[in-house]
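Good day; I would like, with your permission, to put a structural problem before you. What I wish to show you is a protein chain and, alongside it, a tokenised description of its three-dimensional fold. Thank you for your consideration; the sequence and its tokens are set out here:
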Amino acid sequence: MASVTLERLNKTFGSTHIIKDVDLKVGDGEFVVFVGPSGCGKSTLLRLIAGLESISDGELRIADDVVNDLPPRERGVGMVFQSYALYPHMTVYENMAFGLKLAKMANETVDERVMATARILQLEELLHRKPKELSGGQRQRVAMGRAMAREPRILLFDEPLSNLDASLRVQMRNEIARLHHRLGSTMIYVTHDQVEAMTLADKIVVLRDGRIEQVGSPQTLYQQPATRFVAGFIGSPTMNFMPAELLGAEDGCRVTAPGLGELSLPQDASGQPAGAELSLGVRPEHLRLAEAEGDNRFEIVNVEYLGNEVYVYLEPRVGDTLLIHRSEAPSRWEIGQRVALVPELEHVHLFDAQDRALEIANRRRAA
């Protein structure tokens, strides 16, 4: 096992700047997930750690060793790719042993490592089979085993579950989580799926346009997003956003929002001028519905029943993105009803004109 440290890491392809001054510390034994939209640089960052791409500027350390110029085989990393990349003419055993034999290890050592890895991944009964005789989940476990058999200091995963169907992804997520718990090894995992990130990670790194937007535990990113981008990316269904205007910050934070009226919120808005345009965010489970009359009403345009819960979609007062209310099933709300929205004020988020979150007042004083 080993830690990974990135200091002002940069990567350019010609005139295109892909990775921009990334600073990050991955602790020994941590499970860290890089997440972000397509093109944000997460796979490129993983390839820089693996040594599959050269670093344009900055420093990369594994444990205490600077590895900028080391080839992949000398970095002590193992990588599991999106495609299984198994040799179709080889058995499971031969696929897992191939890299060890290339490294000219003794046959006894090769056999010990392959068998030990097979036991961990529950592949012992499949060692004689070829890839075409395996399911997708079994093939992915073989690909993981091939990387693990080399006993790398760090395991890297590049969207390893994206080719699997939904039920198999859930199964493999649990397999990977159990594997990390058993081995305690350092793992870095790339995905575009924020559900995978939330369920697997000790620490999530949210990337945007080649920069780190926020780093934190899944709970921290969900409950205390630092920017509107993180708030909208983490969580499913996504956070609701509405425009708001700051009325005053002298005696608490008072805002008004279309259809919600005047709200008194716990944020510290002392750095904002009266009349400042803000963005108000509230997650679907923190948005209650109530019967109402008058102008401050929203029309229900769709109701989705998902078994144990219900999503109610509402026409916004401003913009064209539907608002979402989430609650336990059954629901008494129907398409066409007009209702009032009542946000739980202690769970409301405010973002300034630069999309930065305003801190809770007592949290700032405590800090």
